[in-house]
Amino acid sequence: MKNITISRTRIAQIAHKAQKVIEIWWVRFVIIPALQSIPGALFFATLRVDKADSLYRPIRPLYNWVNQNPFLASVIVALYVIGLNAIISGVHRLAKGSERVEIKDLLRLFEVLETIVGSKSKRFGEYVSTSYKKPRSEFSAEATFRNITQPDQQIALLNIGIQTFFDAIDRHDTNIATAIVSVSENGAPESWFHFHPDSKPPLATPEELAKPDSTVMHAIKRRRMVIIEDIAAEAKKPDRSRRYRKVENEDEEGSLICYPIIDGSSNKVPYVVSIKADRKKYFRKHHSEFYSWVLETFEVRIRLEHSLLLLRSLADECN
Question: Helices 10-22 & 70-97, crossing angle to 10 degrees?
Fold first, then answer.
């Protein structure tokens, strides 16, 4: 199984491993700056070496060449620095360019969405068929609206669809659970709207989700996706920088995505989609564009069903 629809050639695999090394803090802030600055420093140091100095004898060939060709030596040093930066940039580009969604995974996404739309289409068709068999005097516009719009059911199906898709593209036998958190008007998590699979209910209470250091609250406040690559490591961070709240009896091993659904009419966040994998660093920040692309596809549909849910509530108030 594969970790997030990433397909890589041999060269791209090497580039991805090299990128990981480059991103290590001591490589990024010590080794690379040293490699960039040392040749230039040696060049200028060579020009300043006195012939009476003990260093002169071992570097005499270099000293003579540099002094005879100062312009060429300067160009070589400059080209070395430019070349080093080009290699580092190329590694990043190759690693990033290797991240592509396979056609079979795109087809899987379409299949998931088709299943969801198919459920709604079937409900519409059955109601139309039943309605035509009734006398027109028994036809009710209000009853029709209530029967064909089942936003609660559709939002649940969309959540199942998210879990189904991420599970289908997984290549490591990772356990993936998804949930949709319902958010109140004042921006606080109020309940678990739906979770899947049913055998793995979330352990966090709405009160715990409403704490400032919860991932759900960070998604609500920031109004954008939050990715926690390693929830065990995140839980150990200081309060001010922590973005994951430890829950009693919960397995901390894994990674997490929280994606806020923003309602277009009110500009508020009525839901947060939570996707949890039981493998740490399964979800990676450098794959955020892919996660956003997938979840935006579901977000549009969740927003539509939320609007229908609000209309149904308004209809109830008017009766």
Answer: 110
